[in-house]
Queue: 2 jobs
Job 1
Amino acid sequence: MTEPFSISDAAALRIAEIVGTDQAALRVAVLAGGCSGFQYKFELDRQVAADDVVIEKAGARVLVDPTSLELLAGAELDFKDALMGSYFRVHNPNATSSCGCGTSFAVD
């Protein structure tokens, strides 16, 4: 069985910093589009839908809808703070190819 979507320690820390004492969570969604077929969408959300999967770690909450979760099974949300910029990145074993920007991917 494939592991569910997970959050790295670095991503959990950054989400908790961004949200602070607010009741928001980071919503991670997979949408059709982008240069490779699918693209990731990240946004702060205060509304938890009845069918959302809520992932909590170290004070951070991530919301994922069931359709997106199918494409994120076994993937990990990470946060990079590098010289060229800071960003969230999904390490997705389901992606068979991705674009140079890292936000668009394809599956077979």
Job 2
Amino acid sequence: MNPQLIGVEELTGTYPFDIRQSMKAMRLNRFFWMMREAPARTRWLEERQAAYDLAKLTEEERTLVDNTDWLGLVQYGVCFFVLEKFARVVKITNLGMYASMRGETLEAFLKTRKVPDAV
């Protein structure tokens, strides 16, 4: 184990993205990375199962994507930066993802931020 990660599992809400996680979620990370390309976005929007088949996603991975389970995807090992690509496809902002990861609505989440005039 990376000595910098010793004890990290004791930090609630911390999900390190390391080589082990990266390898476990390689298919999903590649799938989401491809969302920067219009044909990949169109394929997923119009032929979801074909997109999953092409990416060789497992049933568990397909379920995480279908449910837009942002926290589950991070816990599975997906890199947040590729999730941003997919979030745009499903028309969710980063703030919307953060709220979902906390189990909150966007409005409730914004009330916890120090943002003038937040909803």
